[in-house]
Amino acid sequence: MSFTTLGTKPSVTSIDASNIRSNSAVLNAMVNANYLPTNIIFEYGTTTNYGFVANSVQSPINGNSNILISSPIGGLIIGTTYHSE
User: Fold this and answer.
1) DSSP letters spanning 28-63
2) Mind listing the pLDDT tens digit for each residue in 27-53?
3) Cβ(30)–Cβ(42) under 8 Å?
4) Which of 29, 40, 47, 51 could be bridged to 56 by S-S, CB 3.0 to 4.6 A?
């Protein structure tokens, strides 16, 4: 007899940034920890090389349900395009 314990790789779905202002925004994602304790960070910057990291307010998470995760960021440059993941 054999068995497999619960827990697979966490899953993430990106969601558009919200509350976008001239120098701040909120980064969002839907995350399922899939039974594994999961720390959440967002990377962002003016290129896809990012360069900045923001910790999620809700981190760490666990369990097996989709959770909306967000992180407010500030100090952004007015009129600049940002990328995040």
Assistant:
1) EEEEE-TTS-B--EEEEESSTT--EEEE-TT-SB-S
2) 999 999 999 999 999 999 999 999 999
3) no
4) 40
